[in-house]
């Protein structure tokens, strides 16, 4: 236990420097991933005895029946504190050991009584007593007794054989596995050396991983144009682009609207001019027709009626559209031209260019900041490398390596001695098993020969050679039983007392950790220290570090930092505080000023021009009235129809000036229609379409223009508030991402120091190898199985020899026998010579 404590103490002192390494980052959403290099150890974590483990469990059950008392923690504490007084506490020991004591006393009685009984038995038989006379009395149940004795002896021999097999198996198992002890020790020492060698490598590996973090940060710094500038652009885009698109669209619409107004105005002027000219021409035609109808011919019937009809319809020969109802759009065109001096399309392009150049502007304005951050990162890397190289743990580990080498030489030297003496133990146990085997063999041969050679019809004095040989084998077995059983029982008692106590006092409490709990008793190992380990490591025994907790943590492969609670000497949480390493970086980004000013710069005159758009009132023009007017036909009557009517009426007149004049006016009306009315119809249709398009284009244009004017007027406030907030938020996210790499790295360092660096599993494995595997698995379990098997076989020798003595009478050739005459037995008739044999 002392070397293990020294090892833990040394690593505890080393832990102060291990925890001084670089630190980490927590944002798992970013792409950095750190994987601590795994350390592979050779030694198996657990020991599996194989099929023989069932036999070991049987012995454990037997020991529990013999010794059901719990582990004597109080007695052990007194022994450690040197307060144990045998004269006062012997009752506790007797109470605890009562089962083992009883078994040992019975064994001692067996050892003492069996030689004594054997001596008396031999002496008695030499005096022809105790069955020593070679005379067998005939009994009615003789066959039954012979068979009963034979079957009983056979069963006992089988049970003895099972015990002998246990002994052979246990003896060979111990021999085989003690031979593996050298390999087990080599494996443990190799794991311990691996543990010592990889710890500095783990520290260097953690320091090297800072390079990965730094390179990732450098990459993000070099891509600030995309990572920050593009994010700002993406945040502003959905808020600004719709307004810029609307401004662009309105600018184009205003240009198209002006063109439409100009065209509509031209059509209106042409229409008004055509209407005026048409009105003059139709007035001339009406005057001409009135003069023609004043001819004297029109006063006589029936021409008078025709002339009156024509005179009454002259009012229809006139235009149907009032030119005054077609207003001029010149004023609207002039006002719109003034508005168009403020080029909304150019302003929108200006806004687009401003947005598209935000990433470039961000990159240009952060050149100096990025250079400062990179210098700070390189400085942090230099500090981490210097700190990792300056760890004194390497010197301490090299010291422990030399200590480990001496321990290895010491153990290997004594392992050779152990293997040498184990050979003698193996031979001794083999001899014991062979003696039992020899006795069981004699019994078995006696049963075989006696049963095979027994002739029921033969008289006791006439039994055959084979039957007699069987009886002799049985008696030889009895003699060997008396001669060797006490020696075998002595071996059983010694191994039982040793193995049972080791199992109950070492193996079981070690597996249940009660042994550690005893050692963890406050003020036990040192009166001034509450907890022994914390007193050794920190010189502060109030810190709760227990042997059980250290063993359990090492079993779970936790680091020395967590196992020995080294945060009391070096708080890794304080050391991995991100602000300790990234304060300058955060300050640099906080001072970053990305200037985002006017998106659409409009001077005062431009603002006045945009505001003047409201005075145009294009959406208030009475397009419906104009379209209703232009939808009318140019004349009140169809001139062609009127001309045809004139021709028809003129054809009814007699040839003369009136007839010719009417036909001349009809032709004039046709020319007016073909030349003027048709053109006017096209002009009216064009005006109607223009008015319809203007009505559609101007609908809602005022509201949209008002929004643009609001956007232009409040652009500066928009930049100051919204864009500044967007820039600040995206800058915060960018800095958070940059710092998250450090947070992740520092958290990984913290996790590595507290959970992975110098993981002490080889220490727990080495302790398990010494106690659980070597002592309990290789030695105590087979030792207990050995005495259990040999002890059972030795105890069964007692009933075996009794049945063998009884059975030998039925197999051996007798010197005399009972003679029957008329149903009476004459015991005085003796044939042959009386003699006593064993």
UniProtKB/TrEMBL annotation:
Residue ranges of the TM segments: 94-127, 148-169, 423-450, 471-498, 785-805
Entry GO terms, CC: apical plasma membrane; cell surface; cilium; endoplasmic reticulum; endoplasmic reticulum-Golgi intermediate compartment; extracellular exosome; microvillus; microvillus membrane
Main location: membrane
Keyword Iron carried by entry: no
Coiled coil ranges: none
Entry keyword set: Glycoprotein, Membrane, Signal, Transmembrane, Transmembrane helix
Entry's Gene Ontology molecular function annotations: actinin binding; cadherin binding; cholesterol binding
Membrane topology: Multi-pass membrane protein
Protein localization: Cell projection, Microvillus membrane
Protein name: Prominin 1
Organism: Sus scrofa (Pig)
């Amino acid at each position: 236990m002392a070397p293990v404590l020294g090892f833990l103490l040394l690593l505890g002192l080393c832990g102060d420097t291990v925890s001084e390494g670089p630190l980490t980052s927590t944002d798992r959403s970013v792409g950095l991933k750190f994987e601590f290099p795994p350390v592979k150890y050779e030694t198996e974590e657990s020991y599996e005895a194989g099929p023989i483990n069932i036999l070991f469990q049987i012995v454990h059950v037997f020991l529990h029946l013999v010794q059901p008392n719990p582990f004597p923690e109080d007695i052990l504490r007194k022994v450690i504190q040197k307060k144990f007084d045998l004269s006062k506490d012997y009752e506790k020991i007797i109470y605890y050991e009562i089962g083992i004591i009883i078994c040992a006393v019975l064994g001692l009685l067996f050892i003492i009584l069996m030689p004594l009984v054997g001596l008396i038995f031999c002496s008695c038989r030499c005096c022809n007593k105790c069955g020593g006379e070679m005379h067998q009395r005939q009994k009615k149940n003789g066959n039954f007794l012979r068979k009963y004795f034979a079957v009983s002896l056979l069963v006992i021999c089988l049970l003895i054989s099972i015990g002998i097999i246990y002994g052979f198996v246990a003896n060979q198992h111990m021999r085989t596995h003690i031979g593996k002890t050298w390999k087990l020790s080599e494996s443990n020492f190799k794991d311990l050396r691996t543990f010592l060698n990889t710890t500095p490598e783990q520290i260097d590996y953690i320091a090297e991983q800072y390079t990965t973090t730094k390179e990732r940060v450098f990459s993000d710094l070099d891509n600030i144009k995309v990572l920050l500038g593009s994010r700002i652009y993406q945040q502003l885009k959905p808020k600004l682009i719709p307004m810029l698109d609307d401004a662009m669209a309105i600018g184009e619409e205003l240009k198209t609207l002006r063109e439409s107004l100009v065209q509509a105005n031209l059509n209106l002027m042409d229409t008004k001019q055509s209407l005026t000219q048409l009105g003059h021409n139709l007035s001339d035609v009406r005057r001409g027709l009135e003069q023609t109808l004043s001819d004297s011919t029109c006063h006589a019937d029936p021409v008078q009626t025709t002339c009156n009809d024509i005179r009454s319809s002259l009012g229809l020969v006139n235009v149907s559209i009032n030119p005054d109802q077609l207003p001029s759009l010149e004023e609207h065109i002039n006002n719109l031209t003034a508005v168009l001096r403020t080029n909304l399309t150019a302003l929108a392009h200006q806004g687009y260019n401003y947005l598209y150049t935000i990433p470039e502007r961000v990159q240009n304005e952060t050149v100096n900041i990025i250079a400062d951050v990179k210098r700070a990162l390189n400085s942090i890397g230099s500090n981490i490398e210097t700190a990792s190289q300056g760890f004194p743990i390497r010197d301490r580990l090299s010291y422990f390596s030399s200590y480990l080498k001496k321990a290895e030489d010491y153990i290997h030297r004594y392992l050779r001695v152990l293997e040498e003496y184990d050979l003698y133990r193996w031979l001794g146990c083999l001899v014991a098993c062979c003696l039992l085997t020899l006795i069981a063999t004699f019994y078995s041969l006696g049963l075989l020969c006696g049963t095979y050679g027994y002739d029921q019809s033969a008289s006791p004095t006439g039994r055959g050679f084979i039957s007699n040989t069987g009886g002799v084998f049985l008696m030889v077995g009895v003699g060997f039983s008396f001669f060797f059983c006490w020696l075998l029982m002595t071996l059983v008692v010694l191994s039982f007392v040793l193995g049972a106590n080791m199992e109950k006092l070492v193996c079981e409490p070690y597996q249940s950790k009660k042994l550690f709990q005893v050692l963890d008793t406050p003020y036990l190992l040192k009166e001034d220290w509450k907890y022994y380990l914390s007193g050794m490591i920190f010189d502060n025994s109030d810190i709760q570090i227990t042997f059980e907790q250290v063993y359990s943590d090492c079993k779970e492969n936790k680091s020395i930092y967590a196992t020995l609670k080294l945060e009391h000497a070096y708080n890794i949480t304080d050391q991995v505080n991100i602000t300790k390493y990234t304060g300058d970086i955060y300050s640099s980004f906080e001072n970053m000023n990305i200037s985002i000013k006017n998106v659409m710069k409009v001077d005062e005159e431009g603002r006045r021009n945009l505001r003047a758009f409201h005075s145009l009132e294009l959406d208030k023009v009475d397009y419906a009235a104009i379209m209703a007017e232009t939808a009318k036909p140019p004349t009140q009557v169809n001139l062609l129809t009127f001309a045809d009517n004139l021709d028809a009426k003129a054809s009814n007149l007699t040839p003369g000036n009136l007839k010719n004049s009417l036909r001349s006016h009809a032709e004039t009306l046709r020319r007016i229609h073909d030349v003027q009315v048709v053109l006017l119809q096209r002009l009216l249709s064009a005006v109607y379409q223009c008015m319809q398009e203007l009505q559609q284009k101007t609908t809602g244009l005022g509201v949209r223009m008002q929004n643009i004017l609001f956007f232009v007027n409040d652009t500066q406030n928009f930049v100051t508030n919204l864009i500044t907030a967007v820039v600040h938020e995206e800058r915060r996210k960018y800095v958070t991402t940059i710092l998250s790499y450090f947070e992740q790295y520092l958290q990984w360092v913290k996790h590595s120091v507290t959970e992975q660096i110098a993981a002490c599993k080889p220490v727990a494995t080495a302790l398990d190898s010494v106690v659980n595997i070597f002592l309990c698995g290789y030695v105590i379990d087979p030792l207990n199985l050995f005495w259990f098997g040999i002890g059972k076989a030795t105890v069964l020798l007692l009933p075996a020899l009794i049945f063998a003595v009884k059975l030998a009478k039925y197999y051996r050739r007798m010197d005399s026998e009972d003679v029957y005459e008329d149903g009476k037995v004459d015991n005085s008739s003796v044939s042959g010579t009386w003699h006593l044999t064993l």
